[in-house]
Design goal:
Elements (H helix, E strand, L loop, with lengths): L1 H8 L5 H8 L3 E5 L4 E3 L7 E7 L2 E6 L5 E7 L3 E3 L2 H6 L6 E4 L3 E7 H10 L2 H23 L5 H11 L9 H8 L3 H15 L1
Antiparallel strand pairs: 1-8, 2-7, 3-6, 3-8, 4-5, 4-7
Helix pairs in contact: 7-8
Length: 192
Amino acid sequence: MIEKLRTFLLNLFTEPEVEFICNEFRLIELQPNEVFINMGTSTEIVGFLADGVVRKVEYGLNGDSIVHYFFQENQFFSEANSYYQNLPAKFSMEAATCCTILYISFEKLDFLAKAIPNVDIFRTKVSEQTLFEITQAQEISKRGNAKERYEEFRNNYPTLANRLTVKDIASFLGTTPNYLSSIRKEFSKQIQ
């Protein structure tokens, strides 16, 4: 799995720099619903998703979950509130599928930034790209009716539609799992 990180980093760094950077990452494997970053706690880690899907989720007072975003393979992720402001996480980062994550502490990332000048540029680019992708994805959940939102979700994220639970997709799209199931059946009939 470290090969995926190496390949990703080779666009900005030399081979020796990539080896140096990769040596600072650690590996964790999560099963569906296991938590990588827990809402309400301080976190000091950044993950690189080598395999699987991670959901960005918040929990209401009654325990209901609201999915805000899905991270996919070859994306870096963290909880922005903790990362930028050193505050408790507003969201949990949880495995939506089986996941392989390479992660690094903020402290190690700062160490790398002092040793390799392009690390700061890299962090900025990754942060900007992630913000853009999250903003684009969240627009889906605000447009049209549930059927239109699901269709847009399928068009924009074709590989996710069949990898995620109906509950997760419904939460992201702002509808109920039962209603989404009926929409999916309708789409299946149209495809046949």
